[in-house]
Design goal:
Distance between the termini: 101 Å
Helix content: 40-55%
Largest sheet: 5 strands, antiparallel
Structural class: alpha+beta
Strand order of the largest sheet: 11-12-13-14-15
Number of strands: 23
Shape: flat
Length: about 775
């Protein structure tokens, strides 16, 4: 409901409840925002910062005039190890995105099974629409800098997603004749003479026309019962098509945010314990007016004051502000505050009547949208249907410390060590003071410095050496403990964060440094990241457990997505609305919860399998369907596996076969021979009399690799796309089947020829003896 449709009391009650939870844990949230803001600054390279208690803001040291004389800022050359460590962890956790698989609610129900299969396709379509690769990366970034990760999923209709046509029907009342015997509507012409004047009547009209012409009776054309000529019309409600409306299609949108944008109670141990969730963000007032035009005269359109920005918003605005503002603020932004309330949250009101009023208006929960302090929209919506929060098993509460918090001290110490080292090196050149009475500085400046040069000086007295007139200041030298201390700090940072050197290809600190040693070290480094990987995988599964049913609910027409199969061909995958009438039981992780293996690890595994030399493993590796994977894992573009071209050729032929029909050849037997009864009893002659079906793409007995191509055809026929083609494209499926049989026939012929050649060679190499040959001949005669 828009703001003008909401009763005044309901608006006041919603404002009271929303402000109550907005102000809750205010001091705690300010400390959290300060920490999250600091980590954001560190991520963006602002590591020399200090917190101003006056401005309540993190300030960059040296960015403001008068903070120092410039000497300290000159030596601040920080290296952002904070971001480097976290990027290594993010890269390791983003090799692959966890896949999900839908399970039917009832394994014996065909509707549930088809819905589960369609749910797998829907998951792929939603992933494609939301660019989940970037979404997953952003979730990892939030996990490292803010801790708790929240996903907001919602359906959205837009014309840019496409349009579909919806027929509009209207019920109209008409008067028509109704047959009292069969209830069939009758045309008005039946009670006139038009039926008698039918053009070119046939035998099928004899009975009806006899009754009409000779007996002057009216007969129902459906049941042939005689009707009363005085039959009265009956009023009927007829549904008629009155128009077609184009409506925009909807998509499931997924967005990921952290604690700076999403406020939940700090005492909540799981999502169900959150009575509220507040999602706030800043945008230009023009964008807010485009979404909520009714607020044109109610919100502040310019200025940097915060008189109408809501409770606590100035500090929260600062926390969400881009780090590029350097303490300044945008002047044309407003805060859009989306508040989700559970029905239990209404109990903060004063009396039961107010609570019951909100529960009656919003029984499943409420979503209220405020632009600054102006209510824009309030609607009935469940919090859990839209939001999915991560649950860290290593924390007692939903809120937990971000991973980057462990690296703050490492970054600070690194900055100090670098600054100290640079200053010591630069100031390490000593300065020498000389007595002007001993050395003429003007002549010395004008002279050219040469190697081994001799310069005139004079002694002050006979008892005083010239060396006593010169003095060199001792300079500071860098302690020998600095470099080992810096290395220890880096090792502690790696240990604290889990970004060990083997994770990003760095040099091992100890060990034999062999390939197996590096492989074992990398496995140990990845094992450290199992906990966040499992946590985020379960969170990802829960998200798709909401968006897939929501997509099915909003689905209006059949959908289609284009995918590339393993052979590189683009194929259409359809999601039929008729196939989603069942129920999905559960969403499961498609792969194990182990971290995905990298390309280098896959290559190592394949090379180890090849070294084993097991015939069964080699046959599996070089199976036609595994050739692309093996070639990709080897990683050498010029390397070509045998049979790769044959495999690609057969896949292209399958596409041609599916798009055409088999060729039907006429019988090859002479019709005159078919009249002979004895010939007709011969099965071979009977088969020749039947029309022959041949594939539209012929096989080449000499050129084709029949073993590989027949195996590819068989794999397709038994695969899910093949089974789908069997029901939806029977001619194409039969065409591929005939092509497969043609390859098998050639293989059988070659096997028979090979057997005959081997038998002939065996007879030539082992001829029978003369006596045995005569005995064999006699035995053959007797048997004959």
């Amino acid at each position: 409901m828009n703001e003008d449709q909401i009763p005044e009391k309901i608006r006041e009650h919603l404002k009271t409840v929303s402000d109550h939870f907005q102000e809750e844990d205010k001091a705690v949230r300010e400390r959290q925002i300060r920490t999250w803001r600091k980590l954001k600054m560190y991520w963006n390279g602002f590591t020399r910062i200090w917190y101003s208690e006056v401005a309540h803001d993190w300030r960059v040291w040296g960015a403001e005039e008068g903070q120092d004389d410039g000497n300290n800022a000159y030596y601040d050359k920080p290296v952002n190890v904070f971001k480097a460590y976290l990027e290594s962890i993010i890269a390791a956790l983003s090799i692959n995105i966890p896949g999900v698989r839908c399970a039917p609610d009832d394994a014996d129900n065909p509707l549930d099974i088809s819905t589960a299969k369609s749910g797998n396709k829907i998951a792929e379509l939603i992933s494609k629409h939301n660019n989940v690769s970037f979404l997953w990366l952003h979730a990892l970034y939030i996990f490292c800098t803010e801790g708790m990760v929240a996903c907001y999923s919602y359906p959205k209709e837009d014309k840019e997603y496409g349009e579909y046509e919806e027929n509009e029907y209207k019920d109209e009342t008409e008067e028509k004749y109704i047959c009292p015997f069969c209830g069939n509507p009758l045309e008005d012409d039946l009670f006139t003479q038009n039926e008698i004047d039918e053009f070119n009547p046939g035998d099928e009209d004899v009975v009806l026309h006899d009754l009409l012409i000779n007996e002057n009776q009216i007969v129902c054309p459906e049941c042939a019962n005689a009707l009363d000529p005085e039959l009265q019309k009956t009023q009927l409600v007829v549904t008629k098509l009155v128009g077609v409306t184009k409506k925009p299609k909807s998509r499931q949108c997924m967005e990921v945010y952290g604690g700076l944008y999403v406020k939940i109670p700090n005492y909540a141990m799981k999502q169900s314990e959150c009575p509220y969730l507040i999602f706030s963000y800043e945008t230009h007032y023009a964008n807010a007016l485009e979404m909520y035009p009714a607020l044109r005269d109610k919100i502040q359109k310019s200025g940097s004051t915060y008189s109408n920005s809501g409770i606590g918003d100035p500090y929260e605005r600062w926390g969400r502000l881009s780090t590029q503002y350097y303490g300044e603020y945008p002047i044309n932004n407003v805060t859009v505050r989306n508040v989700w309330l559970r029905p239990a949250a209404y109990n903060v009101l004063a009396n039961d009547d107010e609570v019951n009023g909100l529960k009656k208006q919003f029984p499943d929960g409420c979503k209220a949208v405020y632009v600054n302090d102006c209510l824009a929209v309030a609607e009935n919506e469940c919090l859990d249907d839209c939001w999915t929060l991560t649950h860290n098993p290593m924390s007692d509460y939903i809120h937990h410390d971000p991973l980057g918090l462990l690296l703050v001290s490492v970054q600070d110490i690194t900055n100090d060590l670098i600054s100290l080292t640079v200053q010591t090196i630069e100031q390490g050149i000593p300065q020498t003071f000389a007595d002007p009475a001993v050395l003429n500085f003007d002549e010395y400046r004008q002279s050219e410095a040469t190697v081994g040069g001799v310069y005139p000086t004079k002694a002050q007295s006979a008892t005083k050496n010239i060396s006593e007139s010169f003095f060199t200041i001792k300079t500071a030298t860098l302690s020998e403990e600095v470099l080992p201390f810096g290395q220890n700090i880096q090792q502690l940072g790696q240990l604290a964060s889990g970004a060990l050197p083997s994770l990003f290809g760095g040099q091992a600190e100890a060990g034999s440094k062999t390939a197996s040693e590096y492989s074992m070290s990398r496995a140990q480094a990845l094992q450290r990241l199992q906990t966040p990987w499992k946590m985020l995988s379960v969170w990802w599964k829960e998200i798709f457990g909401k968006v897939i049913p929501s997509y099915i609910k909003e689905m209006s027409t059949d959908e289609r997505l284009v995918e590339k199969d393993k052979q590189g061909n683009y194929v259409n995958v359809f999601i039929r609305k008729a196939e989603v009438q069942g129920k999905i039981g559960d969403i499961e992780l498609e792969a194990s919860e182990q971290l995905p293996t990298t390309c280098a690890q896959q290559k190592d595994i394949i090379m180890k399998l090849l070294e084993l030399g097991n015939p069964e493993l080699l046959a599996a590796l070089f199976a036609p369907e595994n050739l692309p994977f093996v070639s990709e894992a080897i990683g050498i573009n010029q390397f070509k596996l045998p049979g790769e071209d044959d495999r690609q050729k057969q896949y292209e032929e399958i596409q041609q076969l599916l798009q055409s029909e088999p060729i039907v050849m006429p019988p090859t037997i002479d019709p005159a021979m078919a009249q002979d009864p004895e010939m007709m009893q011969n099965p071979e002659m009977m088969q020749q009399m039947q029309p022959q079906e041949l594939p539209s793409v012929e096989v080449d007995p000499d050129l084709d690799n029949h073993e590989i191509e027949s195996q590819i055809c068989r794999n397709f026929l038994v695969s899910e796309p093949g089974r789908l083609a069997k029901t939806q494209n029977p001619p194409g499926y039969l065409n591929v089947l005939l092509h497969f049989k043609a390859h098998m026939m050639v293989l059988q012929q070659r096997q028979m020829e090979q057997m005959q050649q081997e038998a002939a060679m065996q007879r030539m190499n082992n001829p029978p003896a003369e006596g045995k040959e005569e005995e064999s001949a006699k035995t053959g005669v007797n048997n004959g």
